[in-house]
Amino acid sequence: MPWEGTPELPVGVAQLENQVAGHTAAQGCLGLLKTSNNDGTILKPTGKVLCGIREIAFYERLKDAQEKPIQHNVDAVDATTASFELLNRIVPRYYGHPKLAIGGKEMEFIQLEDLTHGFEQPCIMDVKIGRRTWDPLATPEKRKAEESKYKACRQRFGLCIPGFQVFSHRCGGQLIRHGKDYGKKLTEVNIRDGKKSGLNGVGEV
Fold it and tell me: Which keywords appear in this protein's UniProt record, sorted alphabetically (predicted)?
């Protein structure tokens, strides 16, 4: 969600400094938030109403799957239910969708497990999987805009790298961060260098 200037945040939350992609505070957006009591969760703004409704429904379905494990002795297991069980193994844990007053407006958030919690120098890479990055309800304008992003890598490899950060011990623990401008320059020729840079950083921590 775009903002003019830095929004006034309520007591108890702050900007998440480890966000490497998506709508960030540096771009004039609200960005991801964290709780000041360092409880190991992050708050993701839901953004557009319909997108927020659908995303919350997805996480609620995941939560149901966590609380009601599949009975593997049944003869037939619904394929969708089985897929949600698999997703639960790799998706951050969901803690609901609280509302906060931000800049005089009530906003809804998705509260998720912070996978970097406990790490002093987290190395993070945002990888977007898939050749198609829009949903079936997207407008023609939205589809055209999405098709033009990271085109070379998406069409060749079915993925793109919107951003990453590494703490390079070879450079004295210096933080190296690359955003979407770097990712858009990656092609099928140099994308391996981008992945190697990020993974090398992980190996150095």
Answer: ATP-binding, Kinase, Nucleotide-binding, Transferase
Q: Give pLDDT, residue 144.
A: 87
Query: Where along the chain do its domains lie?
Result: 13-113, 124-193
Burial class (CB in 10 A: 0-12, 13-18, 19+), 140: exposed
**Alpha-carbon gap, residue 29 to 39, rounded angstroms:** 24
pLDDT grade for 204, boundaries at 50, 70 and 90: very low
Is the pTM for the entire model greater than 0.90? no
Q: Give residues with Cβ within 8 angstroms of 79, minimum separation 6.
A: none
CA distance 52 to 50: 5
Give the C-alpha distances (Å, rounded to integers) separating 187 from 83, 131, 158, 161, 176. 32, 14, 12, 11, 20
* Most confident among 19-23, 59-63, 69-73, 173-177 (mean pLDDT): 59-63
CA dihedral 122, 198, 179, 31 (to 10 degrees): -30
CB atoms within 10 A of CB 194: 20
What is the average pLDDT score of the chain?
A: 80
